[in-house]
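Collaborator request log, item 7. Partner lab (contact: R.S.) asked for a structural prediction of Tripartite tricarboxylate transporter substrate binding protein BugD to inform their binding assays.
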Amino acid sequence: MRRSTATRLLTLVLALGATALAHAQDYPSKVITMVVPFAAGGPTDTVARLLAQAMSGALKQQIIVENVGGAGGTLGAGRVARAAPDGYTILLHHIGQSTAPALYRKLPYDPLKDYEYIGLVTEVPMTLVARKDFPPKDFKELIAYVKANKDKVTYANAGLGSASHLCGTLFMSAIGTPLTTVPYKGTGPAMNDLLGGQVDFMCDQTTNTTSQIRAGKIKVYGVTTKTRVPALPDVPTLHEAGLPNFEVTVWHGLYAPKGTPKPVVDKLSAALKVALQDATVKQRFADLGTEPVALDRATPEALREHLKREIDKWGPILKQAGVYAD
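Returned to partner:
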């Protein structure tokens, strides 16, 4: 009886393995959906659309981008965590994947347990920008102005847990001044209101601000990296401008639901590497103030390790700041 049961189990395992292998060999045989957990028009959406087009060519199958915004990116991330593990629903998320565990007491998924990792994509600098007619002329004046008008100044962000929220939290902590925050469902809508003068300033990725800065449509006070950004050579770092050691970069990673077959993940990771070497992607990233990660970081192992380090880094910072959602 025991031998018969063991034989049946072995047969079942082998059958499942053969089915998974056949699936992987045929993959992809239909359109793939890349979920972006933020509104259309934002910086992560921009990265996703460039990546999806290049990966579509590498996989010889269309990848469409679907925006599932809300709750600081957790709605879209949760949707992918619950999706069928077949490689046809994948997630492009940013640093918010590492801050969510500290921000949400009842997070409906575990970033470290509910995904297969495909690879890192890019690390994007951020910029501190304001509406075109905001009174302060430079960073020094900005600090003095917001401290003197802290009850009137409005800071826009893309919602709890977003990169703009994190950057704003660190900025307010660094200058010791809490400000009125205006949350949006993405930095795309927030940027629209900044351009329209409905909010005063925000911290946003260069992928969303570089063209607006160059066109003179918004005012910029600094970048959040240790060194200046080649796409914006005249813009000082916030460290240079007077905020010592202030640094925030926004990394993006690509994920699949837990249980996605390894051969499928490997195909997606290989396509990611091809996309990151695409001349158009490199040029568009450069125009937006960023660049692809090195190919040895566009791997499942590198993303897994990076995510773990980032969770360990930001968890204590957010806990100390007392920022969380129910």
